[in-house]
Specification:
The structure holds 2 protein chains of 2 kinds. Chain A is of the alpha/beta class. Chain A has helices at residues 2-26, 31-42, 55-58, 63-70, 84-97, 119-126, 133-142, 148-152, 155-158, 167-170, 208-223, 237-240, 250-263, 275-278, 282-285, 294-311, 324-342, 348-354, 369-373, 376-383, and strands at residues 49-52, 74-76, 102-106, 228-232, 268-270, 360-366, 398-403, 406-412, 418-422, 428-433, 441-445, 448-452, 457-463, 468-475, 481-482. Chain A is globular, with a radius of gyration of 26 Å. Chain B has helices spanning 2-19, 31-46, 49-65, 71-95, 98-139, 157-173, 182-190, 203-206, 218-251, 259-289, 307-313, 316-330, 337-355, 359-388, 396-418, 422-432, 439-442, 452-472, 477-482, 486-503, 513-516. The chains are: A alpha/beta, B mainly alpha.
């Protein structure tokens, strides 16, 4: 009997072990997953500041800028639509590894009146937490009862993904995006003003659940002797007004939060009331009505950095040898930022000036040179890159390679089927045009393959620091960019 | 690890208690049953022998009431009626002699039959009966105003009513003694593994098992679990996947034709087989873990070479019930040919009605009856043709031919069984006569609920079911499996569990849409 019990238990343990291994394969691989794994479990960096909240926070405070300007280390744990109760359990999990950070919390989600947030949003956090007491508590308190089994055992929720599994589901890269420290903001301009009435006086209630969890977070910080800073990200109040699951008068609710903050001796930065002070232009500094863009986030981050520096005893780590990685990360971040801005440009005239970057390898490729030759405007624009473009040829293809702002190759000749080059700094480059599919270009740099099938002028921009192509565009006869 | 398992267990118990009884139907393929069953089993073996039947009775009523607590009143009523009828019949036998005893016995047995079938009629057939009556009268321009009966059909009522009736009749016939212990008898009627969908056990096969002393046996429990595992595979991977395709076509018969309907109809044959057989397998497996033996309900029905054989292999316990308590009392085949044909038709019409209160089920039953009657009438002609044309009847090729013909006949009858109305069945048969095999190459067949990948899994599932059925012909598969090496067995079990977890149709489903919004 005893032997059989041992046998059965062994079987069960192996089976459960296998299931535990395959469970994460099915979980949706989002950027949120990557960053929470980095911030919660992977990295041994210690953070002076942890940034908590929903997407408003994710696109507002930029750890790399905090680092570059103030030498403050931080990580942005915010995820899209993160309800405040989930934030509480996430913060508890953060505090397991990071003992003494200043906690900066965005309060937008205090307005949620539903008992539970949306399933998908909650999953951004809970699915990516390791099995722990905090995770269990998060499930029991932040999700509906009938969903508990599917949070505890995510495969039950996601198993239908078996037919869409990709490589990243099996080997998920959580490393390469760490330099962003959880931050991500858009690079386009909202173009409209905020209609919020921030001068509203008087206060209103907080929805019972979010109030409970705001106090829980305050309590948690007190218990752990942590400094808490509340912030209210710039957003247009009128856009959320009238939603069935949201507080009906958030201006007054924010006033109430200000009161609570005062009572508890907690600083509260309401950015919506500081536009003039920090020179924030809602039209140009917002990505949409609720989220700052990259330029907006610079201003918001700078203000917070100054505030933290002035009010807390934070050492400047910039010249500290132990923090060398943060400088490397910052370089990555700046390159990535430029790439993101580049990707928003839709006209070749505006695009060319952005290509002046020492780290770029630019491959200009066109399988019908006449198209380029006939287009005077386009030719002039492209000459801005240092290209000559002075050979007239009606049929053949055109290839140019610009490396470190220098033209290394410019060729108009026979239709190239396949050509291999080694650039000045030993970067292998290969260009293939498939004759059977005339419009297909395959460019291989450093062993990575990029394909484009447009019968236009194609431009590939490869960033040597990021080790990947940051943009691959085609330009139509009117200079408009397609991707 | 132990803490992990323990906390999972605790969570599920908490979920159950908090949910209250009404909302947690203990479907076999639910998390609730996966909690309920181990708890019932473990406690069952831990408590003294004398108390075990009480525990099972509590468990069984909890199981049944999880659908609707009110149902307990109905099953309780049926239990009481048949219990007392048993005692009264036996009492009449002992206390009186001769004609009086026979008369009394008849009175009680018919009383029991009448009340039980009356309850069944009221819940299952009353509305069908009255609407048919109204329609009939409307043909003569007479409007009938009969009140309808708005109660949900209690789950499993057809199954346990038949099981309870078999007891009354067996006592009446003197095949078994009346059960004195009301609790044990109530357990016989409500025994949870087979309560809602069979197998329908005869009292002489099951009742005595509640008096036996059962002890835990590792090998038997393992064998039972393997059977349950196979049941879960049939249900969750095969039947429920096929159902998506079948429902698409059968719920909109006007929109589809040709191959689409043919594929849906073949799929339905396997859907209903896997669905029903899975229930029986899980029931038998669960009972086996607790050392109870339930009857085999399906024995590779689609490998039958004739309709008659099909009915010896399909829903065997129901067939046996009808044979014992209806066909033979009517005279069976020990009578004139016309009378025998009448008996066959009667049994199959009633069997059709038993499956559901609607015209399609009656037609389905009638078809099966007719298949057999016509088959019997044509047999001399068939035999002669085989002889004249020198057809070899005992070769593989001919047997395959017979199996295919039988399958086609059975599957044709399934159209009536599955179609939502008789009109739908007619549309389906009409639309089926259309030549469009290109739906496979154009890919339009993969737009009926199962995309190409799911369709492939469905086909693989069907193939696995057929292979298992073919292997079963040569003896008990589970015994053969037991002879294999541990490594092979464990690998097989684990692969099956993981296949069910990955390819099974369960859970709330994943909707990428929920995740796309606000990606940054």
């Amino acid at each position: 009997m005893k032997k059989n019990v041992v046998k059965f238990c062994t079987f069960l343990i192996i089976l459960i072990y296998i299931i535990i291994i395959i469970n994460p394969i099915f979980i949706l691989k989002t950027d949120h997953r990557a960053k929470l794994i980095q911030g919660l479990y992977k990295k041994d960096d210690s953070y002076d500041v942890v940034l908590m909240g929903s997407s408003h926070m994710a696109g507002m405070i930029n750890p790399n800028e905090l680092w570059n300007k103030y030498g403050i280390t931080s990580f942005n744990y915010a995820t899209g639509g993160q309800p405040i109760d989930v934030t509480y359990y996430l913060l508890k999990e953060v505090l397991k590894k990071h003992k003494k950070p200043i906690v900066v919390l965005d309060i937008y989600y205090l307005g949620l009146t539903d008992k539970f947030g949306q399933d998908g949003y909650i999953r951004y956090v809970i699915d990516n937490m390791k099995f722990s007491m905090n995770k269990m508590q998060a499930i029991f308190n932040s999700t509906p009862k009938d969903q508990w089994p599917y949070y505890i055992f995510p495969m039950a929720k996601y198993h239908t993904r078996w037919k869409e599994l990709e490589e990243k589901d099996f080997v998920f890269d959580t490393e390469s995006s760490y330099y962003a420290k959880g931050f991500g903001a858009g690079c386009s301009l909202y173009g409209e003003d905020s209609l919020s009435d921030t001068s509203t006086k008087g206060t209103s209630y907080l929805p019972p659940k979010t109030e409970e969890y705001l106090f829980k977070i305050i309590e948690l910080c007190k218990e752990n002797d942590l400094d808490l800073v509340l912030v209210n990200a710039p957003h247009d109040y009128t856009k959320i007004a009238g939603s069935s699951n949201w507080h009906e008068d958030i201006a007054k609710m924010y006033n109430k939060v200000a009161e609570i903050a005062k009572d508890n001796d907690i600083p509260f930065i309401d950015y919506n009331k500081k536009f003039d002070e920090i020179g924030f232009d809602f039209k140009k500094d917002m990505f949409n009505d609720g989220h700052a863009n990259i330029w907006g986030s610079d201003k918001l981050t700078d203000y917070l950095g100054k505030f933290l520096k002035e009010n807390y005893n934070l050492a400047d780590h910039r010249s500290d040898k132990d923090y060398e990685d943060w400088n490397t990360g910052y370089v990555y971040y700046t390159q990535d930022r430029e790439a993101n801005i580049l990707k928003e440009v839709n006209n070749i005239k505006d695009y060319v000036p952005f290509l002046k970057n020492d780290n770029y390898i630019i491959v200009v490729d066109c399988n019908n040179y006449s198209r380029l030759d006939d287009n005077h405007d386009l030719k002039e624009t492209m000459k801005g890159l240092g290209l000559k473009l002075d050979v007239s040829n009606q049929k053949d293809g055109y290839t140019a390679v610009i490396n470190r702002n220098k033209v290394e190759l410019e060729e108009i000749g026979d239709f190239i089927k396949q050509d291999k080059f080694v650039l000045n700094d030993n970067v292998p480059l290969e260009i293939t045009r498939l004759r059977e599919k005339v419009n297909t270009h395959v460019i291989t740099i450093n062993g990575k393959e990029y394909t484009n099938d447009k019968d236009n002028l194609n431009i590939l921009v490869y960033n040597r620091i990021l080790g990947k192509a940051v943009d691959y565009i085609y330009v139509d006869d009117n200079g408009r960019i397609g991707r | 690890m132990v803490a992990l398992i323990f906390s999972y267990g605790i969570i599920f118990v908490v979920v159950q208690i908090n949910n209250g009884l009404e909302s947690i139907r203990l479907l076999f393929n639910s998390i609730n049953f996966l909690t309920f069953f181990p708890i019932v089993t473990i406690v069952y073996f831990l408590i003294p022998h004398k108390a075990r039947w009480v525990w099972l009775l509590i468990g069984s009523y909890y199981f049944y009431m999880s659908w609707n607590p009110k149902y307990a009143i109905l099953i309780g009523t049926s239990t009481l009626i048949t219990y007392f009828s048993g005692l009264l019949i036996e009492g009449a036998d002992k206390r009186f002699e001769g004609e009086k005893s026979v008369k009394l016995k008849k009175f009680w047995v018919f009383g029991s039959l009448f009340t039980n079938l009356g309850i069944l009629f009221l819940f299952k057939y009353y509305n069908f009966f009255t609407s048919s009556l109204t329609r009939l009268f409307s043909l003569f321009n007479i409007t009938l105003q009969i009140p309808t009966f708005d109660f949900l059909l209690p789950v499993g009522i057809s199954f346990y009513t038949f099981q309870a009736l078999s007891y009354t009749i067996d006592v009446y016939r003197g095949d078994i003694k009346a059960e004195k212990n009301l609790g044990k008898y109530a357990l016989f009627v409500a025994f949870f593994p087979q309560l809602v969908a069979g197998p329908i056990e005869k009292s002489k096969d099951l009742l005595y098992q509640f008096d036996e002393e059962h002890s835990f046996d590792y090998r038997r429990a393992k064998s039972g679990l393997v059977l349950m595992l196979w049941g879960f595979f049939e249900k969750m991977v095969v039947a429920d996947r096929l159902a998506i395709f079948v429902n698409t076509v059968y719920n909109n018969p006007n929109n589809y034709k040709g191959m689409e309907i043919i594929v849906a109809t073949i799929f339905f044959a396997f859907q209903i087989y896997c669905d029903f057989a899975s229930y029986s397998d899980i029931a038998r497996g669960a009972a086996e873990v607790m050392d109870f033996r339930l009857s085999t309900n399906f024995r590779q029905p689609y490998l039958s070479k004739s309709i008659k054989e099909f009915w010896r292999r399909w829903h065997i316990t129901l067939g046996a019930w009808f044979k014992d308590y209806l066909y033979i009392p009517l005279g069976g085949n020990r009578c004139s040919k016309p009378r025998n044909y009448f008996n066959i038709m009667t049994v199959f019409l009633i069997s059709g009605l038993w499956h559901g209160a609607a015209a399609n089920f009656v037609i389905w039953g009638a078809l099966h009856g007719a298949y057999q009657v016509i088959g019997d009438i044509l047999r001399p002609i068939k035999d002669k043709a085989i002889e004249k044309l020198h057809i070899k009847a005992d070769v593989f090729g001919f047997r395959v031919f017979q199996v295919i013909i039988t399958f086609i006949l059975v599957d044709f009858a399934w159209i009536f069984f599955r179609a939502n109305t008789f009109t739908d069945a007619k549309i389906l048969i009409k639309n089926m006569m259309y030549f469009n095999p290109w739906v496979f190459t154009s890919g339009s067949i993969y737009k009926l609920g199962l995309d190409f990948k799911d369709f492939r899994v469905a086909i693989i599932g069907i193939i696995i079911v057929i292979i298992v059925d073919l292997l079963k012909r040569n003896g008990n598969l589970r015994i053969k499996l037991e002879e294999q090496n541990v490594l092979f067995k464990w690998a097989l079990y684990m692969v099956t569990v993981i296949c069910i977890l990955v390819f099974g149709m369960y859970g709330p489903g994943f909707n990428a849409q929920q995740f796309i919004y606000f990606q940054f």
